[in-house]
What we know:
The structure holds two protein chains of two kinds. By secondary structure, chain A is an alpha/beta fold. Chain A has eleven helices and twelve strands. Chain A has a domain at 252-332. In chain A, 30% of the residues lie in helices and 23% in strands. The longest helix of chain A has 18 residues, at 190-207. Chain B is built from eleven helices and ten strands. The longest helix of chain B has 18 residues, at 192-209. The interface between A and B is medium-sized, with 33 and 36 residues.
Amino acid sequence: xxxxxxxxxxxxVTGLRKEYRLRGAGGHRTLTAVDGVSFELRPGETxxxxxxxxxxxxxxxxxxxxxxxxxxxxxxxxxxxxxSARPRELPELYGSVQMVFQDPTSSLDPRKSVRAxxxxxxxxxxxxxxxxxxxxxxxxMADVELPEHLIDRMPRQLSxxxxxxxxxxxxxxxxxxxxxLDEPTASLDVSIRGQIIALLERLQDExxxxxxxxxxxxxxxxxxxxxxxxxYLGTIVEEGPVDAVFDSPAHPYTRSLLSAAPVAEYGRTKxxxxxxxxxxxxxxxxxxxxxVGRCPIAQETCSVxxxxxxxxxDGHLAACPVVVAAPGHGHD
Amino acid sequence: MTAHVAPILEVIGFSxxxxxxxxxxxxxxxxxxxxxxxGSSxxxxxxxxxxxxxxxxxxLGLSPRGFRRTAGQIRFEGTDLLALDEKSxxxxxxxxxxxxxxxxxxxxxxxxxxxxxxxxxxxxxxxLTRKEARKRAQEMLDLVRVPEAKRRMGxxxxxxxxxxxxxxxxxxxxxxxxxxxxxxEPTTGLDVTIQADILDLIVELKAETGMTTCLITHDLGVVxxxxxxxxxxxxxxxxxxxxxxQILTDPRDPYTQRLIANSRMVAGA
Lengths: 332, 269
């Protein structure tokens, strides 16, 4: 959605921080998985969170759903605070935020049929009597294109794609405003991947749900997302409309990530932006810019202070003063 | 087709399957046939259930438990590998054929140092003394660009990142200078920048050693960027075989066409 609408965001995350205290031979140490992340998700919008292992993208989803408690920061779903909700208030909030997991096999109860899996959220979150719940289950199955005759099948009797459809139907059952999708297509074959993405797009059009789409699959992100947030070691290093970020990435990390992604096209000449070494441990995060030591264009000033997000173009921000301050950057 | 180059490996009419509960054979490979040109970077590409992995493992004589061949040959430099006894096959595996698996950290033994494991391969297959084998292992780690190879030799698999562990597996696979290296989804599960580094390394090592490689993958993007000869499989059958250029720019088989379309999600890309 490109139109700027002045309405309350469906999800608003401000200054989110998640630390883990580690006990070891050297005394207490702190692992910072998410370090002051802020973003918002407007109704009906898809924002993708991309980054590699250890970037903190899944931790963000786990904090939003309170699977783990954030160390600090605020999470608002509509006008209600998810971050300060007491445990007994959470079930009601799950009526607004739902999650779809990467591996539908382990996120579904193996002893519950399709019918029982979909009946549970309806029982907990709606006042529908039993007979109407069955109608609603059939409706949900039709919505995710699961054939009706599968209603009494167990998860193991379904294909990988059908299981992921069931996971989506379960999230849809409570009519949430926001669905967090954590690598929903990562364990699927490419032909099924396309079907699931098409399904998610149709459901969003019909129900106006906002998606926070966590993925390392840049091909899928480019197709489904309106905006993208690029994460590295617990912080957002670049954000903006998906075409702006993919066509003119500004941050050296984004450039490296995008240039590394293989494309199924013959004879494409590829200029890789290479970073030195490997991603550092989130226990000893470098001072200043986190990419210092790996970055091909780092300057002395980069190790002094952590750079803020700077404006590249309308809605497109990058945390790299070296690139953003340079004349004629980006827009070619 | 690269028909003018004699294939280093030929799979001819290879069929087989697994027995079900009643002992009846359920076929999974149907007269699979293709050639790997000598010196090529070949790829067998397919989705789950295509039979690509069983075919690749069979080349190494490592077909999964229960698999029964019903017909066919796998000829490596003219010798039918399926007719060899276990001992000859093991010798060939150490000398001419090698494989790198997907999960490198799972494939390494957690209780031995990485250097020891590479040295052990050199000692067993090349008859080197312990000292020579250690020296060779360190050379191999240098070859696969593991920084500080000497220090890394004494480390254990859990001290290696996924990318570094895959480099160590490559070092082990290359220690015997194989003529044909099979790579079974070597970068699946690795982050995209690490994947790109490993693929670059494989391309460089191939150029340095002159070996033939056969990549097993589900990812046409990886194929497009690293391979020159492609075999497309689906449901235990070869759908199409050709040069990378022909397969990607002029696919004849409807399944190949769909696979390419599904791999490029953005219209017009």
